[in-house]
Amino acid sequence: MFALSGPLGRTTTRRDTALHAGAPRPGTADPVVLTRDDVESIGRELDALRTETVAKLGAEDREYIYNVIKAQRGLEVAGRAAMYVPFLPPIWLAGVGALSLSKILDNMEIGHNVMHGQYDWMRERGLSSREFEWDTVCPADQWRHSHNYLHHTFTNIVGKDRDIGYGILRMDPDQKWYPHHLGNPLFAALLMVLFEWGVMLHDLEIENVVQGKRGWADVKPLAVGWWRKAGRQVLKDYVVFPALSGPFFVTTLVGNGAANLVRNLWAYSIIFCGHFPTGVASFSEEETADEGKGEWYVRQMLGSANISGSPLFHILSGNLSHQIEHHLFPDLPAHRYPELAPRVEDICRRYGLPYNTGGFFRQIGSVWGKIFRFALPNTLVGRPKVPEVVIERSARAA
Predict the structure, then answer these.
(1) Residues 363, 273 contacting (CB under 8 angstroms)
(2) Is 51 left (phi over 0), alpha (psi -120 to 50) or beta?
(3) Strand pairing partners for 4?
(4) Who's near 349: CB < 8 A, 6+ residues apart?
(5) Tens digits of residue pLDDT in 219-237
(6) Which residues contact 292 (CB under 8 A, 6 or more apart)?
(7) pTM here?
(8) Which is nearest to 151 in space by CA: 136, 169, 164, 170?
(9) Concatenated DSSP letters for 222-255?
(10) Is pLDDT of 17 > 60?
(11) How far is it, in rounded angstroms, from Cα 258 to Cα 255?
């Protein structure tokens, strides 16, 4: 739960000054109370951390991203070459694995991060957020709108952040329940398998189309983009490359489809682990009205979760395993997040805020638990417990 006192509610008096110095008292249900000074101080600390990191950007970051691109291209070449020897199953399977890794790197550590503008400071055309296109069916310009603008501006604000459920899932108790939500687990499974297509259709706002709030005039420009981008992707993976393998058309077609499936399953799992595990908070439009920079920072920390893992795991996740740091600093090179994470966690600890992190299986397990739970109305399953944080917006009560 997230609350704002003052003009939007009651004025809250700080009840435990220890909340400022450390975590909430164990065994109590007392909320974390942040004064205006606390919030402004958090904002200054995070602004300073960002400024310090920007000052470090240079040759190390350039070398890193080009090494990742080199690895991605090498894996793609190796994977596609292995499709020419399906009569040696181990090599063919290794090729599927290599192509899968190539698509994961292109989607996560390269495409997602480049299109966030993380490397715009290099002023190199191939790494320009405005010109980059990734190896997936969603047009880059549509993704930048639905993700960079809508999601990162309105993170976890119910009714404004369409990433909460992607228009088809119920992922929060404040989303109104309808009978079709009984299909939550099935819809989630289909979205996982077809994730790149779900991302492509994100800007469609399917629920508004069904309700008659969007017409063909709204959809037509999107459809033109889908036809061009998805058409090229389908032609490349399911026609051209299989045809180039001659008599191995079918096995190459299957291999390419398998690589896309692996990428979809992985991207879905990483993204859902960063947004929907137990303990991640959501917000109302009223709570976030007239929000200041410090409050925006607090919302990002409360509305995100991390995944612990090895350095290779973080690279393959596009460092979205550090989703908290990504939501705080979306345009900083993601490979910097591991060095920022301990300092962000320290800020959370000192102000009594939760820092949601855990292993992959713990986080994904809690995500699927919520998918099944929110298939049912609140009257049957109740509301999950989340950390309660109160931000004082008016003068402290006498």
Answers:
(1) yes
(2) alpha
(3) 391
(4) 22, 23, 355
(5) 899 999 999 999 999 999 9
(6) 39, 40, 43
(7) 0.89
(8) 164
(9) HHHHHHHHHHHHHHIIIIIHHHHTGGGHHHHHHH
(10) no
(11) 5
